[in-house]
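General statements about sequence and structure are easier to judge against a single worked case. For one protein, we set the task of working out the structure tokens from the amino acid sequence alone. The sequence in question and its structure tokens are set out directly beneath this paragraph.
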Amino acid sequence: MTNVHKDALFVLVKSLSKSEKRQFKLYVGRLGVNSDAKFLALFNLLDKIKVYKEKIILDSGIVKKEQLSNLKAHLYKQILVSLRLNPVNQNIRVQIREQLDFATILYQKGLYKQSLKILDKVKTTAIDNEEKNIAYEIVELEKIIETQYITRSIPDRANELAVQAKRLSEQNVITSKLSNLSMQLYSMMLKVGYVKNDESHQMVEEYFEKHLPKYKIEDLGFREKLWLYKAHLWHSFLMQDFLSCYKYANKWVALFYEQKEMIYLNPVFFLKGNHYLLESLFYVKYSSQFKQTLDKLVTIVESKAFPKNDNINSLAFLYINANRLNLHFLEGTFEKGLYLVKIVEYGINKHKDRIDAHHVMVLYYKIACLYFGIGDNKSCIEYLKKIIENKNLKMREDLMCFARVLSLVAHYEAGMDYHLEVQLKSTYKFLLKMNDMHAVQKEMIKFLRNLGNIYPHELRDEFLKLYKELKKYEDHPYEKRAFLYLDIISWLESHLEDKPVSQIIREKALALKR
């Protein structure tokens, strides 16, 4: 996948819906002098063309080359102003900010009493909606105004504002520390994946303990608890402690169900929390609760009350479809999941400007596993190629490594032996380069490398030997991560029992059903 450079203004124009374009033109046309404005002509041109080319703009005669940069910047700003006025984008944060701006303007005009009245009202709204950073800004402005608008109540008012500012500051500091910790742990997860040995385990543990701030759970509000559970969740993921992942993801989602108004105020966090809860349930193979959680999420997302915008739509597509694929993996119903391939391909294309390369590659890997599960190894290889040949992917090294290992297995299953030797060498070099050579991978490569020296009648014994060897690592604290990406045990069992791999997984799912 090539990384095509795209002009920011062009991407913004193309992201607008029909109603947003209509509103922009109404906004621009509110004054007659704007009807022939150059920036509107540029907007109309960008709206029509399919690929951004500066030459097309210059040839249109709208603007000279030396003026183009300024005109684009002006148009970009005007579109944002128009979007800000759109009722769809008038969420509680925008409304609070707007009221704060109004209060600031009144203060600058010397209308202190009117400014304080707005600030007092909007401060309550900010605190009620857990917008404590903005609430702190409001209190600070109140303090400034109170020093200029002298009243008899100033001693009491000064004390009240000081206490309020201190409390909000303390809460914001805890939130900041927890969000920093969460982000750092998330960054580790994306870069290197799960802990691989005692050394990395100790490093993560020490980092977590050092940066986790002291707190009393009863003193924490919604936002602080949210970041606390996120930090614990990423710590648990790194440690491959999936029961703990479930525990904290469940706490995260429960926060929203306890305060349902927060679902609609913070839809992104609600979606992410449900995604991680589903991921945890997938790893602990709790299929019945997985299905209930997914169904409940879909019902809420599809309800009229749930907020809708480009970002939310993209995330909903990503999380819901990734977990629909996971449900088929859990139940071993690979063939039933094939309908999702076209949906995912269409969604990737539709949301390509809002979904990062990492998440796209995760979806491709899941589709590859889907095809592997039904025995369509050539299609599996095609999707794995999209990951292996992606030179721009800098994150999630473990995904890149296991894509190569699965590709090896798929080549063997497809009877493409003539590619196998080249693949083996390439994969071996890559794993060494990434410093990601694990026992499971070593055993797999050793098995595949020796295939050329094995007679057909010896094959079953070799599968059995590999199966016994890999079973040792199934519950190993560091090696077990290999089985999260590729259920190699079920693949071996399918050869030993002469059954399709999907049937093996389905039988296990039925035995585990809770």
